[in-house]
Amino acid sequence: MSDIDARLTELEVRIAFVDDTVNALSSADAEIARRLDLLERAVRDLRSDLVNMRAGLGSDPATEPPPPHY
Alpha helices, DSSP H only, in the chain? Predict the structure, then answer.
């Protein structure tokens, strides 16, 4: 095998590894994006629940007196 053939084979092997890595990272990125969407939705729901709970209790944080340690 000539030097050029050996170098070409080495480059093909490296490209195959790079290809596998890119595919793995792409899959991981998609999974992270999916999980982030779920977390953002959960935070939105929790904020909405908190606002509804505060409204139900009739307490407005802006009108509450400061805590005793102030």
Answer: 3-57
**9: Cβ contacts below 8 Å, ≥ 6 apart:** 1
Can you tell me the distance from the alpha carbon of 32 to that of 27, in angstroms, rounded to the nearest whole number?
9
What is the value of pTM for the model shown?
0.59
Going 64 to 65 to 69 to 70, the CA torsion angle's sign is positive
- Which parts of the chain sit beneath pLDDT 50? none
- Chain-centroid distance, C-alpha 55: 31
pLDDT, residue 64, reads 74
Quote the CA–CA distance of 51 and 60 in Å, as a whole number.
10
pLDDT at 42: 98
Length of the chain: 70
